[in-house]
């Protein structure tokens, strides 16, 4: 992907397609991070619920879609390892998100892309108009 950002794109449709692709990648990163943060929260809840329990107490864990019987002493370290792994993945995805935001910002600067709300188009006095965010839609505008 780094190659395409250094070369000029042939036309406005290619620029719009690339911009749309970058936005899509950014949204996917946001979604995945949010999903993993929810899973991390669930792991934290499980850890806090079983940590004070007797290590020999019976508990059940879902492994590959199969419910298996284990003890708290066996499950707790595994859940903690999974939580640490999730934290690492979230950190890496957050770093990728920062890079993708920069790539998108650089692309928008290179091609002078500005986002306008549809309710702003055609108005010469934008600051005088009330903004209704529910009626506004994003529009891709490339200035010459």
Automatic annotation (TrEMBL):
Chaperone listed as a keyword: yes
Keywords: Chaperone, Coiled coil
GO biological process, one term: response to cold
Coiled-coil stretches: 83-110
Gene Ontology MF: a single term: unfolded protein binding
Region called Disordered, residue ranges: 120-144
Gene Ontology CC: one annotated term: prefoldin complex
Transmembrane segments annotated in the record for this chain: none
Amino acid composition bias (Basic and acidic residues), ranges on this chain: 120-132
InterPro entries listed in its UniProt record: PFD2 (IPR027235), PFD_beta-like (IPR002777), Prefoldin (IPR009053)
CDD domains assigned: Prefoldin_2
Organism superkingdom: Eukaryota
Annotated family: Belongs to the prefoldin subunit beta family.
Full protein name: Prefoldin subunit 2
Native organism: Adiantum capillus-veneris (Maidenhair fern)
């Amino acid at each position: 992907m780094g190659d395409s950002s250094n070369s000029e794109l042939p036309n406005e449709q290619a620029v719009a397609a690339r911009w749309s692709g970058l936005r899509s990648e950014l949204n996917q990163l946001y979604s995945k991070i949010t999903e993993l943060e929810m899973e991390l929260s669930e792991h934290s809840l499980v850890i806090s619920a079983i940590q004070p329990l007797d290590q020999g107490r019976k508990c059940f864990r879902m492994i590959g879609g199969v419910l298996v019987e284990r003890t708290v002493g066996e499950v707790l370290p595994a859940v903690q390892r999974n939580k640490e792994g999730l934290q690492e993945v979230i950190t890496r995805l957050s770093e990728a998100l920062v890079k993708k935001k920069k790539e998108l910002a650089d692309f928008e600067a290179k091609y002078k892309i500005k986002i306008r709300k549809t309710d702003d188009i055609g108005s010469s006095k934008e600051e005088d108009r009330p903004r209704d965010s529910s009626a506004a839609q994003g529009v891709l505008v490339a200035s010459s």
